[in-house]
Design a protein that fits this description.
alpha+beta; five-stranded mixed beta sheet; 27% helix
């Protein structure tokens, strides 16, 4: 048959369309047993080695997609490197996801990867709806046979399908919700993509309480029962129940726009006076909610906690002189400042904080006479590591007790410290008011859940000094450029977190403006003010 033909006209329901692989026309019918998937990619009896060649990539992709399109899951699975796992997932595409029609259009191979688009029809109990998406497959060399095979991943079926997850269509087990912000404005996934995982979690937890009814949907059911289902398509809407959140639509819109500037960006905004979460956004927007569940070293943004501890112990004052040498050796481990800068001995602690001097903090470790001082302050004042009940799954931060060089690294937010944007935004909110208020994304009154409480607040004197130091950082310190466009009473702290095996550090930034605190991280973003800073500033401008 001629290559380059556009459409296969068949009497069945699944069709493979000619695309970048130069396919001919194939007569394929669901359950018709397409033959392309059973042929070897090579006529030679020798076991080949090395990466698959262009022709093998084309033939293997062709055979697999043809067999999948024909509904022959067995033949398609034979062309993968994990037949046992692949076959039931491929069969479930029709049997459990109820895909009754599909047109698969492959694109031109890019190396060993072959992209394709799927235009499908899902039908369930008289309800039918079109469904389109794009994905890709990768062709690899079989380890034992030497044949070119599709490297089996669940994403071959759908880009959001994960290991052990299932694709299903039916009446949802969860009632529909209409989430609204604190002013009653509707929040949806289409307008605010980052809220997709958040809304799925809220629906799973509070759908029944919101008083809605279930609809008919196509969804991904994760292997972990603690995780929410991900809705991919709605065939028939249920009656949604209204769910009040603490989010702010304007701040959320700004957060969504800001994170799009950088791949691997996350941001959270919190209202210090109440703990209400005003915005949460990630890029990429779908899947893992890194802004609230991430676990990474936060770099110098943690110096807010370290400074509070040192101020409480009377080891420093905001205006008092503090040494800031270019580098310092502590228990066999050398620490230095960015670009090995140093400050005159007469410089104040505020200057060391605003310029993000690492050595000024580390030189004071022995004076605390307690390796657990920082973890205690993080927990007892800032609520880190307590059991936060935000309304959805979140990680509450971690500052474990350490000794020696590891304890020193913690003082500047490195080592075993683990945080995310939510944790750092909360730390900034606590520093701004002096009292920890556990962040929430739905009001406590919704379910009367027990919120975490810290055992004590900062004194007014320490709170004032801490705020003054953050104001200095925003006015003339490392946060000046990023915060220049932010109005009101403002403060900031920058951070750069080194990651093993990563050439460029992660960019961290946190700040407040009036009654709004925000924090952001950008993976491999470099200096805190360069990448994460503009993200935070954009959210503060919109929400404060």
């Amino acid at each position: 048959m001629r290559s380059g033909a556009k459409v296969a006209v068949v009497g069945g329901v699944f069709v493979l369309v000619a695309g970048g692989l130069g396919y001919g026309v194939y007569d394929v019918v669901l359950g018709g047993g397409g033959t392309g998937g059973t042929e070897s990619a090579s006529a030679s009896s020798e076991v080949k080695t090395g990466p698959p060649e262009k022709e093998e990539i084309q033939e293997t992709a062709k055979g697999f997609l043809e067999a999948w399109a024909s509904g022959d899951a067995s033949a398609a699975a034979l062309l993968t490197n994990n037949e046992t796992v692949a076959e039931p997932l491929l069969s479930a595409y029709a049997d459990e996801a109820h895909v009754t029609k599909a047109v698969i259009t492959p694109g031109a191979p890019v190396g060993t990867k072959v992209p394709y688009t799927v235009k499908a029809t899902v039908s369930f109990e008289g309800r039918t709806k079109p469904w389109s998406y794009s994905s890709e497959l990768t062709v690899v060399r079989g380890l034992t046979t030497g044949k070119a095979l599709v490297d089996w991943q669940p994403t071959v079926i759908h880009p959001q399908l994960t290991e052990g997850a299932a694709l299903r269509t039916g009446e949802s087990s969860q009632a529909a919700i209409e989430a609204v912000d604190h002013n009653g404005k509707v929040l949806d996934k289409e307008t605010y993509p980052s809220l997709g995982p958040v809304l799925d979690s809220l629906r799973e937890k509070y759908g029944d309480e919101a008083g809605g009814s279930a609809g008919v949907e196509t969804w991904i059911e994760p292997a972990d029962e603690q995780l929410p289902d991900t809705t991919l398509l709605t065939l028939a809407k249920g009656k949604p129940g209204k769910l009040q959140t603490t989010l702010d639509a304007d701040a959320q819109a700004a957060a969504e726009k800001a994170v799009k500037q950088f791949s691997g960006a996350s941001v959270v905004a919190v209202r210090p006076s109440t703990g209400s979460i005003r915005a949460v956004a990630n890029n990429p927007a779908t899947g893992f909610n890194a802004a609230m569940q991430g676990t990474q070293a936060p770099g110098s943004t943690l110096k807010i906690v370290t400074a509070a501890m040192l101020l409480e112990k009377g080891l420093v004052t905001a205006d008092g002189a503090t040494e800031c040498p270019k580098e310092v050796l502590y228990q066999g481990r050398t620490f230095h400042n960015l670009d090995h800068f140093g400050l005159p001995d007469s410089s104040s602690f505020t200057t060391s904080f605003a310029r993000s001097c690492n050595t000024a903090f580390i030189k004071l470790i022995d004076d605390t006479k307690d390796d657990s001082a920082l973890p205690k302050t993080a927990r007892d004042v800032f609520g880190i590591g307590l059991d936060w009940k935000t309304g959805i799954t979140s990680f509450d931060g971690r500052v474990p007790e350490e000794a020696g060089g590891e304890a020193a690294a913690q003082y500047i937010g490195q080592g075993t410290v683990q945080m995310n944007a939510l944790n750092i935004a909360s730390i900034t909110a606590t520093a701004h008011t002096g009292t920890f208020r556990q962040p929430v994304i739905v009001p406590q009154s919704l379910d009367d859940r027990q919120l975490a409480t810290a055992s004590r607040s900062l004194s007014q004197n320490v709170t004032r000094q801490l705020n003054d130091m953050m104001r200095a950082t925003a006015s003339w310190g490392t946060g000046q450029a990023a915060m220049a466009s932010v109005g009101g009473d403002k403060g900031a702290k920058t951070g750069s977190a080194e990651v093993d095996g990563q050439g460029t550090s992660n960019s961290w930034f946190t700040g407040f403006s009036n009654d709004l605190a925000a924090a952001a991280v950008v993976q491999s973003g470099g200096h805190g003010g360069d990448a994460a800073g503009p993200v935070v500033a954009a959210v503060l401008r919109a929400g404060s």
